[in-house]
Fold this protein.
Amino acid sequence: MPVELIPCAAYLLLALVLGLVPGLSVSRNVAGFVAGNRSLDTLLLYFVLGAAAFSSFAFLGGPGWAYSRGGAALYVIVYGALGMVPFYFLGPRARRIGARLGLYTQAELISRRFDSRALQLTIAVFSLAALVPYLTLQIKGVGYILNVASHGLLSEWQGALLAYGIVTLYVLYSGMLGLGWTSVLMGVAMLTVGWLFGLYLPWKFYGGVGQMFHALAASPQATMLLPPGLTAGGGSWD
């Protein structure tokens, strides 16, 4: 087994355990499965929202875009910051209303607000249409990581199938609480890896973050530091 595959396997095993354990105590009804018995505290919600906002693109595509296109990737910072603003104001109110009226989905909430069955179905269809590609992106990203970490021992579809099977197991058994605790694991892992390599690699190769940018500014790729970055073809906008 390639050594790079060992931490990946350990992570998947830990995620499976963390995802299954909440199922031992969660209620076997809609409130337990969809809303985690409405018991998600600030910590769990923080990591659940982080897992929803930062996907395989945030960990693979975003850094790759920054590496190859430079300033063009700065838009990620903008939508990452502004995207949570509406939720900050609307999210707590929606949660209070949902708990009071016994609602569990966006479609139910909007239907109750506007008394429209057609609107409820429309929101449900649009939510499904948006979530399925997003979930596919997540699983595809894991498949790509496992393919690279295994040096081709696992194909991308085999890695994706493995990850999909693990997620399916703990989601079906534990529902939202299982998702919450695996989101904590993923968030801690991403923050640790991000800060570790974001600080260590610049220090290792350049002596620090500032020195890294000075080296980049003095290199032929200095234009990558300037918005709007490089074009899709890798050339300058000029």
